[in-house]
Write a structure and sequence with these properties.
- The chain has about 100 residues and is mainly α.
- Helix content is about 65%, strand content about 5%.
- The chain has eight helices and two strands; from the N terminus they run ααβααααβαα.
- The protein has helices at about 1-5, 15-25, 30-40, 40-50, 55, 60-65, 75-85, 90-100, and strands spanning about 25-30, 70-75.
- It is globular and about 45 Å long.
Length: about 100
């Protein structure tokens, strides 16, 4: 694989691990996300391509920030978007009922 070709002694090159750590620590301000979802056609298209319902776009900044920190980290983004994909299933409704 390409990754193996660039490793030395089973370790990733320092620059790659530095970039991975930086990406993992990125946080998106929920206010910026709210504006992007309204004004940026590429963001809207990406959400549509991910099968995120249009009704959820307006509230995406709240949905993806479960701890109400005002910021969305990579883990919150990935988990939140994966939960929003497609139509709600019965298990989704049961989960919401249990959370309330």
């Amino acid at each position: 694989s390409i990754l193996k070709d660039h490793t030395q002694n089973g370790c990733l090159p320092p620059r790659l691990t530095e970039h991975a750590a930086r990406i993992q620590n990125l946080q998106l301000d929920t206010k910026i996300l709210a504006n992007l979802v309204i004004r940026d056609s590429e963001v809207v298209k990406a959400l549509d391509d991910l099968d995120i319902r249009k009704e959820d776009h307006e509230y995406l900044h709240d949905i993806l920030d479960p701890d109400n920190s005002g910021y969305i980290d990579l883990a919150e983004l990935v988990e939140g978007l994966s939960r929003l994909r497609g139509d709600p299933r019965r298990s989704d409704i049961v989960t919401v009922d249990l959370m309330v």
